[in-house]
Amino acid sequence: MQTKTARGTLRVMDGNRAMAEAAKLCRPNVIGAYPITPQSPVVEYLSQFVNEGELNAEYVAVEGEHSAFSVLMGAAMAGGRTFTATSGSGLIFGFEPFCIAPGLRLPIIMGIASREVNGPNILGYSTQDLVVGRDAGWIQLVVENNQEIMDTTIMAYRLAEDPEIMLPVVVDYAGWYLSYASDTLFVPSQEDVDGFLAPVSKPRELRLQPEVPAAFYTSVMNPWRYSEFRYYHCAAMARAKAKFDQIDAEFGEFFGRSYGGQIEEYRTEDAEIVLVAMEITSGTAKVVVDALRDEGLPVGLVKVRMFRPFPRERLQQALRGKKAIGVIDRNVCFGWNSGTLYYETKAALYDSKEFIPIVSFIDGLAGGDVTVDHIRKAINIVHEAAHGKPVPEVTWLAIEDDK
Questions:
Q1: Which pTM value belongs to this model?
Q2: Containing structural domain, residue 338
Q3: How far apart are CA 202 and CA 73, in angstroms?
Q4: Most buried one in 89, 92, 159, 216, CB count within 10 A?
Q5: What is the DSSP string of 132-198?
Q6: Alpha helices of 7-117 — where are they, by DSSP H?
Q7: Which pLDDT score is estimated for 207?
Q8: Which of 44-53, 77-86, 90-99, 216-225 has the lowest mean pLDDT?
Q9: What distance in Å separates the CA atoms of residue 129 and residue 109, rounded to the nearest whole number?
Q10: Are residues 142 and 268 in the same domain?
Q11: Which residues have C-beta within 8 Å of that of residue 101, sequence separation ≥ 6?
């Protein structure tokens, strides 16, 4: 995070409160709410804000996530600003409307406090729910800490409601780690957030009006026409990359904090080997990178902040000329038997016209810690690959640690 003169009130709060406070500052008209661990306090805080008159919004307490997403689809069709939050199995339960909303170009904002979704059942953090939904058509932003939850949620509204984008956005953060862990952060003033969101806060024409009948989510009988819908959807996703970089830079000018847009580069300029990671893993990795730099090893880190659309061009630029790359995932890509970020990064570098060894590391599943020792071990393996030594394509760091 780059900090100039930070604007806002310094407060202490956990990640769930940061998400709720950010949503409140963005003045949603309709909130679709259903609790699920570890997200539950987000919608509980929002209920409190509405009941105490701090937020003028329609709070709809539903019987499940399928209804929560459906309520917001209707509200967004009518021109309303919307918000919801969920975790893991809640996302899966609402998956039908989750997949429909982006095809209707509805700028819904959803926080996800990530958790495992695969059996056997366990309450623990991973980004498996994020990657399960990666091809549903949502923009997916992934954050490292509580300040980034606050700031990225505000940026998400600017991105989703931009007339050139008009797509729903996920803001994903670590369940149990960030959701319940408290930290200091700057909370922007209502006046400042209103100013930042002003470009997308003009009264929008209501599209559902009794006096002007219209049809939404009707069947498309012509396959060519359906392909046209998908073509323009993909074009909006492509535009979202540069747009997010622009919004992040404007946020930095406005609030004194910026994060690099699609990716954050940490000590990569002169690095020979680079780790690629997302979310809270990046914070620990930065500590290790600093320590190894002091020991003379030229290592750097790329933190991916925008997982969908994937920041291919920015990654190609950041990783050009490196001797080897290691990618740490807190999820599993079944079929590839690696981490999802790993094979996405590998695909992104395919047309870069240079061969760079890339190694996959899986760690931190089900809430397990990605430790300093694990990251050091990963960097040692990447260092060996950089010098032409044979290394495994995929290393499960926690399992290796138990051997």
A1: 0.95
A2: 263-402
A3: 20
A4: 159
A5: HTTTSS-EEEE-SSHHHHHHHHHHHHHHHT-TTT---EEEEEETTTTTT-EEEEEEPPHHHHHHHHG
A6: 15-25, 40-51, 65-77, 88-93, 95-103
A7: 67
A8: 216-225
A9: 16
A10: no
A11: 69, 72, 73, 76, 108, 138, 168
